[in-house]
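Posting this for the archive.
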Amino acid sequence: MRVFVTGASGHIGSAVIPELRKAGHEVSGLARSDESADALAAAGVDVQRGDLDDLDGLRKAAAASDGVIHLAFKHDAMRSGDFAGAVAADWRAIETIGDALAGTGKPFVTASGTLMLALGGLGRVGTETDALDGGPRVDAENAVVALAKREVRSSVVRLPPTVHSTLDHHGFVPTLIAIARVKGVAAYVGDGSNRWPAGHTLDVARLYRLALEAAPAGSRLHAVGDQGVAFAQIAEVIGRHLNLPLVSIPPEEAGAHFGFLGPFVSLDNPTSSTQTRKLLGWDPTHPGLIDDLDQGHYFADPTVS
């Protein structure tokens, strides 16, 4: 299968590419910079220059493929406060790719997040059958699922807030570590009992490949290895490795302390992947979040954030 991948040189894309090639798939990847293009070419990827705003390029690349994995998102815009702009760009890209694949029966696999379930006030362990009516990124998820009615074998992989491994240099885990270094404390909100699910990058990459190959049209999938890790436990490991005190901060100070992560750090987001494992035979085999943190690689380079 010839697979077009957006976000091909990013954290998850850098694991998805070798996973696809090992399985015998040909890969073309979207690259917005010379550095990304060079990295993809070195990995044996056919480079498609452009970005999420190049809708004509996305349309042509999708139409020329046997399937698409859409991983790109304007994370820089999100971090700078333009979350709405990042969401809008993602929506336009999904709409464009979906139109190009309509009526073909080809697979289209995209990314969403489990935190959306917590923001929706679910109040229990989230499952793959849970869906929200609308909201940022939720609208895009629902649109992808709806493409099943247009003869696209669409599926959405909901990513946990902590997708972790040695490939993770800019995600939530290194961000929390960078904040702890700057603030001089490893912090959690309240009693820190709220839980975040987690998944290892290599397990997530395998799920993307399985979804591309076999997920039924309209599937929602959970890339979750750890169903829920208490936030205080994550903070404790960070504090221990950085030799920093562990502190609780009140909810009203979360934004000032954690920055753009402020709205998320106190969310309780336990999430099951039982249905995903049964549907696709996916079995996470790599270390869980706490074991991965204790391997020390996240703390080796203080310049990484």
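The mean pLDDT is 94. The longest helix spans residues 83-101.
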